[in-house]
Specification:
mainly alpha, Arp2/3 complex 21 kDa subunit ARPC3, transmembrane helix
Length: 187
């Protein structure tokens, strides 16, 4: 079955090969990922309409960074938050709790787990928690005005179901891009 298939050991092998590079090269790659993530996240505010379709791809640089190195993934996550704070503060509420948190969660899950179901579940749980914090703690209408700011079990279940399906897609996207990038980065 799809969900219980193991992910190959390519991630662990690429992490070992990536550690062989100089610290300068690893930092430069991390800085590149931070710039890409910040630019993609800011697209939602800079390009109204089309930008909202581009901004979810800010997950990919954080996810790829965490797949190559946990330290680089965490560094990329926090530096992207800092860069958004400086350049585009209006996107600061969304990134740390949704796209960034999901990217770092899936990337870390790739390092610790092999089964797709567990990797997808970790990302889904973190995305659900992030969305619920925005909705119920900060009263930020991340899902629009149609979702009430009062807690509902139906809403929470719907958010988790969406997050699970969304993370299925992101795991496959991450594996596709990771296979393309690992040949450039590891050699």
């Amino acid at each position: 079955m799809y969900f219980f298939k193991s992910i190959s050991d390519d991630v662990r092998f690429a992490q070992l090969e990536f550690r062989k590079h100089t610290k300068t090269m690893r930092l430069a790659f991390g800085a590149f990922l931070v710039c890409i993530a910040a630019a993609l996240q800011a697209a939602g505010g800079v390009l109204p309409g089309v930008g909202y379709f581009i901004s979810p791809f800010a997950t990919l640089p954080i996810l790829i960074g965490a797949m190559f190195s946990l330290q680089m993934g965490v560094m990329s996550y926090f530096l992207t938050i800092l860069l958004l704070f400086i350049l585009f503060p209006s996107e600061l509420m969304v990134f740390p709790f949704t796209t960034g948190l999901m990217g770092i969660g899936i990337g870390i899950a790739f390092s610790f787990f092999k089964k797709r179901f567990i990797i997808i579940s970790v990302g889904a749980i973190l995305l659900t928690i992030g969305i619920m914090i925005l909705l119920y703690v900060f009263s930020f209408p991340v899902l629009g005005p149609a979702v009430s700011s009062s807690f509902s079990l139906l809403t929470a279940g719907s958010i988790f179901l969406f997050s699970f399906l969304y993370n299925c897609l992101w795991v496959e996207i991450a594996l596709f891009f990771f296979k393309k990038l690992k040949t450039f980065i590891t050699y």
